[in-house]
Amino acid sequence: MNAPLRLGVLGCANIARSFVRDVASSPHVQVVALASRDAAKVRAFAAELSASLRAPRLHGSYEALLADAGVDAIYVPLPNSLHAHWAAAAAQAGKHVLCEKPLAMSRAEARAMFAAARTAGVMLLEAYPYWFQPQTGDLLRLLHGGAIGEVRYVHAAFGFPIAKPQGNIRMSPELGGGALLDAGSYAVSFVRLAMGQAPTRVRAEARWAPTGVDIGMTATLHFADGRHAQIECAMDAAVHRRALVVGSAGSIETEYLNHTSEEPGGNALGHLPSLMRVRGGTAGPAPYEAVRSACGSGFRFAAEAFAGVVVSGDHAAIERAAAASVDIAATLEALAMSARQRREVAVEVG
C-alpha cells in the first residue's frame, strides 16, 4: 500500500474515540474527516482527539461527510438501528464502508446493505475487532488443521455490567439496544466462525429490563448436521468473555478479546492478555497447551485488514465475510423472535 486509506468517521460515539486513537499510528489508514449532526459537537470531538488526528476536515452533517471527495471509506460507529441506512447511503456515495457490529437489525437489512455495496462497486465489511486479531487467525488454523478433529460443540459467552443504565443507548429498544445485539452478537459471531455455517433453528430464553430490552439471554443453536452450540450474554453481570470449542479429538478455550496486550497487568489502554489454550486427546486428563499470538488493538487490525482488501480489490474475501455477516444477522433475528415468543424458531439462511 503506497498511500493510506483515507477514512471518515460518521458520528462521535464513545467507540469512535477508541477507534481514532488506536488507528492513529497505522501507516495504512488515516482518519481525515469527522462528522456529527451537531457542528459544535464535532469540533469538541476533534479537539479531544487532537493528539491522534492530523488536521481533519470537520463536517456538521453526515451527508457532508459522504460528499467529501477526499474520503475513500467511512467508518460507521452509530447506534445499531442506524447502521443499515447510513452504510447504504455511504455506499451509494461511492465510499467503502467499515461498519460496527452488529451489522444489521435483520437478515433483510444485511442483504440490502451488501446489495447496495455491490451495486455501487464498493466494499462493505462488518467490524468485529476480535475477528481480525492474530489470535483468531491462529484459532482458525488450529480448527482447519485438525488440531481437535471435527468440531462437535461450541459454547460462547460474553457479559458486562452497565453501571448507569439510565440514558445508555444499550437500554433503548428503538436504537437496537439489548444484551443480544450488543454482547450476544459477539457470541453468535464466534459460533458462526467455529462452526462454519448458520444454525437451522434456535431456542432462546431472556430476562427483560424495564425499558423492554433483553438484559440477559441464554440460547441453544441447532445445526442441520446434528451439532449444536450454546450462547450466553448479559448486561447485568460481571465482565466475562469465554468460548469453548469441543472437537472429536480435543478442545480449545479462548477469551476472544477485541484488544490484546502482552503485558500481564494490561497496558496503558487497558488491553489485557487473551487466553487461548488447546487440550488434545479424548480420554482422561491431558495438559493444556497455551497458544501465544501477536497482540494489539482490534480496531487497528480491523482497519488495516479492511484497507488491505480495498486496495487489493479482494472481493472474494469480502464475499466470505458477507456470507458470515448475513448468517449472523439471520441468527440474531431468530434468537430475538424466539425469546419474545418463547418458542423454537427456524433460521432463514442464504
Short description:
With 350 residues, the protein is an alpha/beta fold.
Can you give a write-up of this model?
With 350 residues, this protein is an alpha/beta fold. The protein has 2 domains: 5-129 and 301-314, NAD(P)-binding Rossmann-like Domain (Rossmann fold, 3-Layer(aba) Sandwich), CATH 3.40.50.720; 131-296 and 329-346, 2-Layer Sandwich (Dihydrodipicolinate Reductase, domain 2). The protein has helices at 14-23, 39-48, 62-66, 83-92, 107-120, 134-144, 179-195, 298-312, 315-341, and strands at 5-10, 29-35, 57-59, 73-76, 96-100, 124-127, 151-161, 201-208, 214-222, 228-234, 236-247, 250-254, 276-280, 289-290, 345-346. It has a 9-stranded mixed beta sheet. Helix 1 (14-23) crosses helix 8 (298-312) and helix 4 packs parallel to helix 5 (107-120).
Write the layout of secondary structure elements.
Blueprint: E1 5-10, H1 14-23, E2 29-35, H2 39-48, E3 57-59, H3 62-66, E4 73-76, H4 83-92, E5 96-100, H5 107-120, E6 124-127, H6 134-144, E7 151-161, H7 179-195, E8 201-208, E9 214-222, E10 228-234, E11 236-247, E12 250-254, E13 276-280, E14 289-290, H8 298-312, H9 315-341, E15 345-346
Parallel strand pairs: 1-2, 1-4, 2-3, 4-5, 5-6, 7-10
Antiparallel strand pairs: 7-11, 8-9, 8-15, 9-10, 11-12, 12-13, 13-14
Helix pairs in contact: 1-8, 4-5, 5-9, 7-9
